[in-house]
Write a structure and sequence with these properties.
The complex is a heterodimer of chains A (107) and B (126). Chain A has 107 residues and is mostly beta strands. Chain A has no helices and eleven strands. In chain B, the strands form three sheets. In chain B, strands 2, 4, 5, 6, 9, 12 and 13 form a seven-stranded mixed sheet that branches. In chain B, strands 1-3-8-7 form a four-stranded antiparallel sheet, with no helix packed on it. In chain B, a hairpin with a 4-residue loop joins β7 and β8. The chains are: A mainly beta (107), B mainly beta (126). Chains A and B meet through β4, β5, β9 and β10 of A and β5 and β12 of B.
Amino acid sequence: DIQMTQSPSSLSASVGDRITITCRASQGISNYLAWYQHKPGKVPNLLIYAASTLHSGVPSRFSGSGSGTDFTLTISSLQPEDVATYYCQNYDSAPRTFGQGTKVEIK
Amino acid sequence: EVQLVASGGSLVQPGGSLRLSCAASGFTFRSYAMAWVRQAPGKGLEWVSEISSSSGYTYYADSVKGRFTISRDNSKNTLYLEMNSLRAEDTAVYYCSKGGVYYDTRGYMSGFFDFWGQGTLVTVSS
């Protein structure tokens, strides 16, 4: 099975900051990588698929990049409503595996 | 508007069984793969199982293989998860989710999830 490792596990940043979350796959997965945002008490929301394609309705401050084993999710200007846990997910093959999550807080 | 309404979660004893349902509306259910993803208390998301649009393929996490069975009824726009031999570690909120799709050089791609239901809580405890 492909293991997905995210870093950091948590971060605290100020409103307006640029933040980056990293996701590493244990083997190459081309660009078959999705990112989700999960706010407390809410359902997860798809942000990005195919490593860099923004899902409909997602603000343009979110972006994704990478291919193979190394991927990043960037929020260009952190907003209070971005407080959430972010997960990457491999869909190159089954089982579909999620990273352990990165909790983002406002400083 | 896509809606996924999960139900069937409850308190069950270890070794017991439960059947979850997910009623779908707002999209052509028979055209999309569907999946169950769970989140145990204080833990992250865990993919549980997935079924293709026509039920031609099913996939399971190693942690549930042989105990859980995913199925769908395209005439009723409903997804199911039959859970047997339940363990304490199966305690979680179970989300049903709709497979997203796009086309690339490999052809039809799915396996990520563009809409999620509100979740149903399964508690396995004596």
